[in-house]
Amino acid sequence: MVVVAIISVLATISVPALQRVQRKTKTVSIANDFRVFAAAFDTYAQEMGTWPAEVAAGVFPPGMDQRINATQWLRKTPMGGQYNWENNQFNLFGTHPAAIAISATVSAPLPFDANMLYDLEHTIDSPSALGWNTGSFQLGAALVPLFVIQQ
Questions:
Q1: Predicted pLDDT of residue 5
Q2: Are 72 and 33 a contacting pair, CB within 8 Å?
Q3: pLDDT mean by block of 10 residues, the chain; 151 residues
Q4: What domain count does the chain have?
Q5: Half-sphere exposure in the Cβ direction for 66 (13 Å, CA)
Q6: Which pLDDT score is estimated for 92?
Q7: Between 98 and which of 23, 38, 109, 150 could a Cys-Cys bridge form, CB atoms 3.0 to 4.6 Å apart?
Q8: 84 in Cβ contact with 58 (< 8 Å)
Q9: SS3 of 89, please?
Q10: pLDDT (0 to 100) of residue 39
């Protein structure tokens, strides 16, 4: 009986730690995707003189086929939802000329996870740029994660 009690106490202590590690792994993966995609979009804009055309969530942006991996773009993100190219779209805190959102789609719902959003904010932005309407990581319309490439 004592052994079972000890094992249950250890399990109770270790489960939250395991969940934090899993969330951090997802956060780092999403932050890396944002940075890789943003660099590709920025290169496209410098070469073409304009940003790619707006597309819906889960749709591959035109002209980006030689710049980003389509499989990475079209997959369900680690937090749910799919990547969404935002060009001059109005969001919660204004209009941004270029941004990448994670939006819910029929095939990839996006559950609201405040802890994941908090971790993304702290992983992507420096301490001086923390806030839901400042820095590279912001909240878009309907509180979707938004990586702003150009303010």
A1: 79
A2: yes
A3: 79 78 92 96 95 93 94 95 90 82 93 91 81 82 88 79
A4: 1
A5: 3
A6: 66
A7: 150
A8: yes
A9: strand
A10: 96
Among 128, 66, 46, 136, which residue's Cα sits nearest to residue 96?
136
- The whole-angstrom separation of Cα 70 and Cα 145 is 20
Q: What is the DSSP letter of 95?
A: E
User: Buried b / exposed e across 46-81, counting CB within 10 Å, b at 16+?
Assistant: eeeeebbeeeebbebbeebeebbeeeebeebbbbbb
pLDDT of residue 10: 75
End-to-end Cα separation, the chain, in angstroms: 61
Q: Which domain holds residue 21?
A: 2-150
Say if residues 100 and 85 touch (Cβ distance below 8 Å): yes
Q: How far apart are CA 59 and CA 75, in angstroms?
A: 10
pLDDT at 75: 95
